[in-house]
């Protein structure tokens, strides 16, 4: 009896993509799968036919032979090259449905988990650098059994269920699917006499104390990687790493922007008008800032190289001082009288250029509205 055309079996055109072929196969295989048809021999034959058609069209070499010579070409190629393992194809398509599909060898020992430690610093600590002790709860290798999990003097045995393969073969209908061994969970061995300290795990919980060197110039969001200081890995696997994440607390005086520092400096009305000298703070001490006469509030003064040294180079940022003219409060009657007399002497436009310019802009605004 001649076999049907593979494309007709799957109900796809000869120009169908790999994705379309796979989709059609999945739909039909679900329909005719023996687990669903409950022993119906006719439907089982249909399932075999669908399986064979997909096996051909899913293999580039077999598909090319079928397209040119039909089933005879596929048979000839199979005799030359042997039969492929269709279990892998079944796993690709149905692993999520029937619970199979784990491919490859047994599980390898897992590398230890990476850990993160959040470190809070003052601005002064971040700028100058510091050494700090931190306590990190983690998993460490059991020194009593050297991480093997077995009691000293005893050895683990090869898993009898999977014979040390880490996997067992499960049959589902016509297919064989490899799954992780339920006895050893892919580890290939069974610990018969576990270590009392780690209870057969090869590692146990402990809080480690580490001395961390924080380089000068770190900022919020920077992190330091401590290689091998994370959790211990399983048996011979490498440990994970520890990442120390920096957070710099808000400062009472300075605001940091990169390597520059910003601060507000209040000055008196007389210093702003006549000029003078005020004391400003820096991270390395106090310095004097010269205020030129006729300084307006909000003016920014740059103090070069008084900021933060870069963590990546020798460059140093600047300190930016924004002067704020402080209005006198709680004036006496004499002080008020003096200020009123002073105000009368400032009626000339040259004394108030900003105010005059502002009033002029307002006049132009309303004149334009009335047009």
Structure notes:
This protein is an alpha+beta fold and 371 residues long. It folds into four domains: 6-84, Orthogonal Bundle (Helix Hairpins); 115-248, Chaperone, DNAj Protein, Chain A (Ribbon); 255-325, Sandwich (HSP40/DNAj peptide-binding domain), CATH 2.60.260.20; 340-370. It is built from eleven helices and 15 strands. It has helices at 6-10, 18-32, 34-37, 41-57, 60-69, 71-81, 86-98, 123-128, 269-274, 333-344, 353-370; strands at residues 115-121, 130-141, 157-158, 167-172, 175-180, 189-190, 203-214, 223-226, 242-248, 255-257, 260-267, 276-282, 285-291, 300-303, 319-325. The strands form six sheets. It has a four-stranded mixed sheet with strand order 10-11-15-14. It is elongated. The N and C termini lie far apart (98 Å).
Oligomeric grouping of the chains: single chain
Q: Please write the string of helix (H) and strand (E) elements.
A: HHHHHHHEHEEEEEEEEEEHEEEEHH
Summed over residues and divided by their number, the pLDDT gives a mean of 83
Judging from the principal axes of the Cα atoms, what is the shape? Answer: elongated
Going by CATH, the architecture of the largest domain would be: Ribbon
**Class derived from helix and strand content:** alpha+beta
Contiguous low-pLDDT stretches (5 residues minimum) are 80-106
Number of strands: 15
**Which strand-content bin applies to the residues?**
25-35%
Q: How many domains make up the 3D coordinates?
A: 4
Major sheet strand order: 10-11-15-14
What's the CATH topology name of the largest domain?
A: Chaperone, DNAj Protein, Chain A
- The CATH class of the largest domain is Mainly Beta
The value of Rg in angstroms is 40 Å
What does the largest sheet look like?
Answer: 4 strands, mixed
DSSP summary: helix tally: 11
Fourth-tier CATH superfamily name of the largest domain: Heat shock protein DnaJ, cysteine-rich domain
First and last CA, distance: 98 Å
